[in-house]
């Protein structure tokens, strides 16, 4: 299976790079679950802008309907959802994959998700949740997790061109989320090489104690990497042999079907 050719991207000092657009998006992305409402000073601090610049972008976004203001605090308005919806609508293969994720959950009784790489994070773009909860945080579409410590993230990193993978590794801080987390850069390089060679990744309690997950790459009929699909489960309930003997064949079969259906 092939991967897409490396795409050219602009650097901030390129003449075609629109700094104002990039800054406006930075302001939107500054709002998250930890910072749903912020003052002008807080937005400026979080984005690294001065107050005057942050104010102009906030007021512009407010005029466009993407941000609303209450007293001294700003927050995203419902219109901001259109930005995410545009991505979901443009990638209509999600409906096909969603059905397969739900089939996995129905067959195994475990949660299954589709993730894509965004910087050094894996972002959930489709999900089928099992009744039991595996992590302290609620996982849903839009959730972001560190790519280096997740099975989907490692699959996606493994399928990057070598220079992009190395650049991502070098700029990513390797935090010990649990006592099992790989924090040695060379050990992680070797892990990613194994993932690419075997075509799947298992992460055992490296992000969250008790969380065990398995992921494989999902391609379309032309060999384009759509993302990674995982099954996440509780380490006390599902052992490693069950993951490889029962879960992996089902996951591989589902990605085979996806490749036949998505053009």
From TrEMBL:
PROSITE patterns assigned to the protein according to its UniProt record, in alphabetical order: HTH_ICLR (PS51077), ICLR_ED (PS51078)
Domain IclR-ED, chain residue ranges per copy: 79-263
Database matches in SUPFAM superfamilies: GAF domain-like (SSF55781), Winged helix' DNA-binding domain (SSF46785)
Pfam families attached to this UniProt entry: HTH_IclR, IclR_C
Record domain HTH iclR-type: where: 18-78
Keyword Repressor: no
Any one GO MF annotation of this record: DNA binding
Swiss-Prot/TrEMBL keywords: DNA-binding, Transcription, Transcription regulation
NCBIfam families attached to this UniProt entry: pcaR_pcaU
Protein name per its UniProtKB record: IclR family transcriptional regulator
């Amino acid at each position: 299976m092939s991967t897409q050719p490396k795409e050219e991207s602009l650097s901030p000092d390129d003449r075609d790079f629109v700094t104002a657009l990039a800054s406006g998006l930075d302001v939107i992305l500054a709002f998250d679950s930890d910072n749903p409402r912020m003052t002008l000073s807080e937005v400026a601090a979080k984005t690294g802008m001065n107050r005057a610049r942050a104010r102009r972008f906030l007021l512009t976004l407010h005029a466009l309907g993407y941000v609303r203001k209450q007293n001294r605090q700003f927050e995203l308005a419902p219109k901001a959802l259109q930005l995410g919806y545009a991505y979901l609508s443009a990638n209509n293969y999600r409906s096909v994959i969603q059905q397969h994720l739900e089939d996995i959950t129905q067959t195994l009784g475990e949660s299954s998700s589709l993730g894509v790489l965004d910087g050094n994070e894996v972002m959930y773009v489709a999900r089928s949740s099992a009744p039991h909860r595996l992590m302290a945080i609620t996982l849903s579409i839009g959730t972001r997790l560190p790519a280096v410590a997740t099975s989907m993230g490692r699959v996606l990193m493994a399928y990057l061109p070598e220079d992009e993978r190395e650049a991502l590794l070098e700029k990513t801080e390797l935090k010990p989320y649990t006592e099992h987390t790989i924090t040695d850069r060379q050990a992680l390089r070797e892990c990613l090489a194994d993932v690419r060679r075997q075509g799947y990744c298992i992460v055992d309690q490296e992000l969250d104690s008790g969380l065990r997950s398995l992921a494989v790459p999902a391609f379309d009929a032309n060999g384009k990497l759509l993302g990674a699909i995982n099954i996440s489960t509780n380490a006390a309930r599902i052992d490693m042999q069950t993951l490889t003997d029962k879960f992996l064949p089902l996951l591989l079969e589902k990605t085979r079907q996806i490749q036949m259906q998505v053009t």
